[in-house]
Design brief:
The complex is a heterodimer.
Chain A: H1 2-19, H2 21-38, H3 49-73, H4 80-86, H5 92-120, H6 129-151, H7 161-188, H8 195-220
Helix pairs in contact in A: 1-5, 2-3, 2-5, 3-5, 3-6, 3-7, 5-6, 6-7, 6-8, 7-8
Chain B: E1 3-12, E2 15-25, E3 30-34, H1 41-49, E4 56-61, E5 68-71, H2 83-93, H3 100-109, H4 125-138, E6 143-147, H5 155-171, E7 174-178, H6 182-185, E8 191-196, E9 199-205
Parallel strand pairs in B: 3-7, 3-8, 5-6, 6-7
Antiparallel strand pairs in B: 1-2, 1-4, 8-9
Helix pairs in contact in B: 2-3, 2-4, 3-4, 4-5
The chains are: A mainly alpha, B alpha/beta.
InterPro entries (chain B): AAA+_ATPase, ABC_transporter-like_ATP-bd, ABC_Transporter_VariousFunc, P-loop_NTPase
Pfam families (chain B): ABC_tran
Domain ABC transporter (chain B): 3-215
């Protein structure tokens, strides 16, 4: 299953990076969001670490929606979805493959969003950067597991695409809040109260949607039109 | 027996597509699936492939490693990948280790070798369909389901298709073939499954079948 998942992820990355369109749109949207919020500050003013972290994660979530719409649309053009479903690998390999591809693309986008947050929102990375990096990966994991699961909803009919963002955002609230709390610690250098609880929430979220993806993806991603 | 359908029915909403379809597909046989437009042939093929769940009835699949080849109305091609990259991806997804020489040989069989490194998105409909056929026959499936595989193919390419069908049958694969020219393709079939008025009108030896009865 993992071999098939890696094949799917490698193919997706080759297609998205070669064509560029999906990733560039996601990057531009995230950067625009960070830039627009930077306009709310006076010259020389420094935004609070918590607000900056919230904007960073908002940019990441919008980027994630576009990334997964792009990844799942790759199969729709010539019906390749049926080919994936007919492969001997279990259908969950598609979910893992899409999640892997989405993870790499999201990290690429965040590699641009983070310097933009520092520059436009007047932040600096504190000595707690290693905690921030670990949390970034834990939260990204939750984002991509859920994104790959709900991204499958956008397959088949274009009218379903709006479902992704409508369902996704309320479900993401716990992990986004964890991201904002830990992100603010990374920018400010002050460990917030209940840090361990937020870490626990992020890990529980990853475990919950990891299991949900394995169980539910087969029902969502099917050959029925 | 590779595949057995037992009293299969399919509803889309309230609309009945097919009912009481029973048949078996044996290895090394070509079964021609015949019927007028809208008879439910493509739906039946999707049910055989496992892409669509029957509303009633039972589908029994006896194919090793679920190794099924399917040619539908769409080509399964990624337009931004080259022809050889497309074949390489499908091959790796099916857990087959194929080197460039094997992939080029598969493209050569459908006369696409000289376009191997070109973007598949630049291919004509006929070339895309030949690439689609190369994908299926490269994977050497035990059960091959073909939904009007001749679409977009010229006379020469039809010859390639017929050769590949004969080679797959010789290898022991079972084939189900929806053809829009039943009368001419009947000579290549061993069995016929004819659908009319949503149910099976004929299932038996091809030599005993009269195409005018349905089409």
């Amino acid at each position: 299953m993992l071999k098939a998942a890696v094949s799917i992820a490698a193919k997706d990355l080759k297609l998205v990076l070669a064509r560029g369109t999906g990733l560039i749109q996601a990057l531009l949207l995230g950067l625009l969001l960070i830039f627009v919020f930077s306009l709310s500050q006076q010259i020389g003013e420094k935004m609070s670490a918590q607000a900056a972290a919230a904007i960073f994660w908002l940019a990441s979530v919008f980027c994630q929606v576009l990334v997964f719409n792009t990844l799942f649309s790759l199969e729709e053009q010539n019906g390749a979805r049926f080919g994936l479903l007919l492969s001997p690998a279990p259908v969950q390999a598609v979910w893992i493959g899409k999640a892997l591809g989405g993870f790499v693309l999201l990290l690429c986008a965040q590699a641009v969003f983070l310097p933009a947050t520092i520059v436009f929102l007047g932040q600096s990375v504190s000595h707690l950067w290693h905690i921030g990096l670990a949390m970034l990966i834990a939260i990204d994991l939750g984002l991509i597991l859920l994104g790959a699961l709900l991204g499958a909803l956008s397959q088949g009919q274009a009218a379903k695409e709006s479902l992704l963002s409508i369902i996704l955002f309320p479900l993401l609230i716990p992990i986004l809040l964890a991201g904002v709390r830990i992100g603010s610690a990374t920018f400010s250098g002050i460990i917030p109260e209940g840090f361990g609880d937020w870490l626990g929430i992020a890990c529980a979220f990853d475990a919950l949607f990891g299991a949900a993806g394995l169980l539910l993806f087969g029902f969502i991603y099917s050959g029925e039109e | 027996m590779l595949l057995k359908l037992d009293k299969v029915a399919k509803l889309y909403g309230n609309r009945l597509i097919i009912k009481d379809v029973s048949c078996t597909i044996e290895p090394a046989t070509v079964t021609l699936l015949a019927g007028p437009n809208g008879a439910g042939k493509s739906t039946l093929l999707k049910i055989m492939a496992g892409l669509s769940e029957p509303t009633a009835g039972k589908v029994e699949l006896n194919v090793e490693n679920d190794n099924i080849g399917y040619v539908g109305h769409q080509t399964f091609i990624y337009p931004d990948l080259s022809a050889i990259e497309n074949l390489s991806f499908w091959s790796s997804l099916h857990g087959k280790k194929t080197d460039e020489k094997t992939l080029l040989a598969a493209l050569d069989r459908v006369e696409l070798k000289r376009f191997a490194f070109e973007r598949a998105g630049c291919f004509s409909r006929g070339m895309a369909q030949r690439l689609n056929l190369a994908r299926v026959f490269l994977l050497q499936p035990s059960l091959i389901l073909l939904d009007e595989p001749g679409t977009g193919l010229d006379v020469r390419s039809m010859g390639i298709l017929h050769n590949e069908i004969a080679a797959a049958k010789k290898r022991g694969a079972g084939l189900v073939w929806i053809s829009h020219s039943v009368a001419s393709d009947l000579v290549r079939a061993d069995m016929v499954l004819a659908i009319r008025d949503k149910q099976v009108e004929y299932f038996g030896e091809a030599q005993d079948y009269t195409p005018e009865a349905v089409c």
